[in-house]
Amino acid sequence: MKKKSFTLFASLLITAAISTVTVSASGDIVPTMTSNTTYTGTGYLGGYAYASSEWAFHEAYKAFDDDNSTYWSSSSGSYGELHFQLFGVKKVTSYTLRTSSQDVSHAPKDWTFEGFNLSEGKWVVLDQVSGYLSYPNYTHTRTFPNTKNYDRYRIKVTANNGAYSTSIAEVQMFE
């Protein structure tokens, strides 16, 4: 009986390790950020995070730190912009947005996902979400057609569910 239990436990550990590798190598083009301007990991173009506003201890990079327990929070009510600028260009065709552990009133309700067109000097809306009632710790996965490379991407939140700030736990972007 002990040998069977040990074998089952070992196979669960191996499965968990494989799952961890699969998740971390999932294709997210954004490296794990450790501040708004520094990151860890290899094989990334690199870049930096910034936001239209942020509360102390809830800086922009916390939405890109691969830690669901931390989050970016705007300090300007229901409006907020969360940006990531790459040190190169990528063609993003999907993203995930994970709400924070704060109550639902802080979750984004209306937002756009945009890429910056350098040659035209303007933001291009790639995806738009309106009237979405979310839940704490919920991951939204969005896919959209995109044929262009951009070096900057942002989530522009125009409404939340009524709180004095808007928060996002994690954002991932995929080609």
Protein model, in words:
By secondary structure, the protein is mainly beta. The chain has 1 helix and 11 strands, in the order H-E-E-E-E-E-E-E-E-E-E-E. The chain is globular, with a radius of gyration of 18 Å. It comes from Fontibacillus panacisegetis.
Instruction: Provide the low-confidence segments as ranges.
Output: 1-25
The main sheet comes to: 5 strands, antiparallel
Give the CA-based shape. Answer: globular
- How many beta-strand elements? 11
Assembly type: single chain
Straight-line N-to-C gap: 47 Å
Keywords: Signal
Organism: Fontibacillus panacisegetis
Protein name: F5/8 type C domain-containing protein
Keywords:
175 residues; Jelly Rolls; 5-stranded antiparallel sheet; 11 strands; 13% helix; FA58C; signal
Q: Would you kindly provide a brief summary of this structure?
A:
Residues 1-25 form the signal peptide. This protein has 175 residues and is mostly beta strands. It has one helix and eleven strands; from the N terminus they run H-E-E-E-E-E-E-E-E-E-E-E.
Topology (SSEs and partners):
Blueprint lengths: L1 H23 L7 E2 L5 E2 L6 E5 L20 E2 L6 E11 L3 E6 L8 E10 L4 E8 L9 E5 L6 E11 L6 E8 L1
Antiparallel strand pairs: 1-2, 3-5, 4-11, 5-10, 6-9, 6-11, 7-8, 7-10
